Amino acid sequence: MSPLEARYRRLLACYPRDHRARHEEEMISVLLAGARQGQIRPDPADVADLLRGALRVHGRRAFGPVSAPAWRDGLALAVALWPSLMLIGALALRLLQAAETLNNGHGTAWERLTWTLLPTEPVVVAALPVLALLLRRRWIAVLGAVVFVLYHIGHPRLLNLDTLLFPNHGPVLLAQVAAVVIAFVPAAHRAIMLIPWRAFLLWGPLALAGLTASKAIVRWVDVPVDLDIVRWKPLPWLVVVALAAGYACRSAVGRRAALLLFVPAAALGDLGDLPFVPTSTALAQLGCAALAFAVAAALAWRRNGPVASATDR
Fold first, then answer.
1. Where is the chain membrane-spanning (predicted)?
2. Cα(74)–Cα(47) distance, integer angstroms
3. Among 120, 138, 121, 116, which residue's Cα sits nearest to residue 129?
């Protein structure tokens, strides 16, 4: 293989694998036939043309009509994962409250331990949609919706439409709706089947640890004194979300679900202050997230390879 052909083949690696399998030899023949005598490097015009072609092919597959099934399944998967994120948020807050209760010294040790172990109403409300999805039980989805309504009737201020924009209300309502929809709509119900149990067992505790760490920085650090530390509060959760997104990129459906869910999921870690922190700090946090994403994606592909499906476009 000549140096010129080797360089052209490296450029063709930008194209999808199946596209190369069908057209690579033909494209190489055309490129070599048009090369000058003694040429050892690709012509800049050919390089630009090949890169434009690769972008067009990837763009058609990512956003063209052929990608519609993958986008539909990706949206269904993102919706199916939302109740789990709400449960993780409720559990993280509960863990922090429990830690504070154990340390505040009020009541006997047994009373503090009992109160700590009892689940709170928000945890129960958030847990029922997740159980409905994991166990594939419609009656649990309906029960979750009823409990959600009763909980809000018991807290009339939550019935104000303005509170639907608050992180603890609107997103939880969306989780209840998602559970009911997935329970009764077959196309949406199949989305949760795409996630193996071992993925929940791996990412559930990791997500809980990351979100709890992010929230603990705000609750347990003296903000005026340790402002530099508080500015890094989104990082633990942001890294976990980036790792999960990288892991999901093994399949076309996973890539689309990660794209749709990344910003809403990352926002649970309180990203509201990110635009106001020093530019160097914000870039460093985003760089850590990008590095986590790249590492997770590389490890997932190296270990298991891409996951093919009927909608893998």
1. 75-93, 113-134, 139-158, 170-188, 200-220, 232-250, 257-276, 282-301
2. 33
3. 138
- Among 16, 4, 11, which Cα is nearest to 59's? 16
What is this structure's pTM?
0.71
CA-nearest of 38, 35, 42 to 10 is 42
CA–CA gap between residue 130 and residue 125 (Å, rounded): 10
Helices and strands in the chain: count of H runs, count of E runs? 14, 0
Comparing CA positions, the residue from 205, 173, 191 lying closest to residue 69 is 191
Residue length, the chain? 313
Q: Do residues 8 and 28 touch, judged by C-beta distance below 8 A?
A: yes
- What span, in angstroms and rounded, lies between the C-alpha atoms of 80 and 139? 17
What CA–CA distance (Å, rounded) separates 83 from 173?
A: 9
**Inter-residue contact 296 to 244 (CB < 8 Å):** yes
Nearest to 138 by CA among 71, 90, 194, 192: 192
* Nearest one of 97, 237, 115, 93 to 172, comparing CA atoms: 93
* Token pair of 87 as six digits: 């449960």
CA angle, corner 112, sides to 108 and 117, nearest 5?
145
Query: Do 176 and 150 contact (CB within 8 A), yes or no?
Result: no
For a pLDDT cut of 70, what percent of the chain falls above it? Answer: 73
Tokens of 36: 């000058």
Digit-coded pLDDT (tens) for 244-289: 888 888 788 888 888 888 888 887 776 656 666 788 888 888 899 8
